[in-house]
Write a structure and sequence with these properties.
8 helices; 118 residues
């Protein structure tokens, strides 16, 4: 019932691959991956995994407007100050912006000006 490394296989990889329309190597990969033990994420991995509220904060138009004149490094520092238990790499922030269509040029055009300078 539960597969282990010592149990017998009841069907060959070739038979399973024909049924599922996959290659034998893909079936072997899936079986090996299923038997592999999963380690719990480390503290560093938890620190770098962003939740939906963090992504919403980074893509919020108000945040983008306030951070318009900042470099990516400065944005990274500001994010960590806002969320002390989370970190984001510059490349991850860049990929997030590219994935969601945020362009730095467009953001800078909508630069935030305080009321005192207006």
């Amino acid at each position: 019932m539960t597969p282990t490394t010592f149990t017998r296989k009841y069907a060959t990889y070739k038979t399973i691959s024909k049924c599922l329309n996959l290659t034998e190597y893909e079936i072997q990969h899936i079986c090996r991956k299923a038997l592999k033990t999963v380690k719990p994420p480390s503290a560093k991995q938890k620190e770098r995994k962003l939740d939906q509220n963090h992504i919403d904060f980074l893509l919020n138009p108000k945040t983008l407007e306030q951070w318009a004149g900042l470099t990516m490094k400065q944005r990274q520092v500001r994010f960590h100050r806002w969320f002390p238990n989370k970190r984001i790499a510059i490349t991850s922030l860049r990929r997030l912006y590219l994935k969601n269509g945020v362009r730095r040029k467009k953001v800078r055009q909508e630069k935030y000006l305080p009321h005192t300078t207006r």
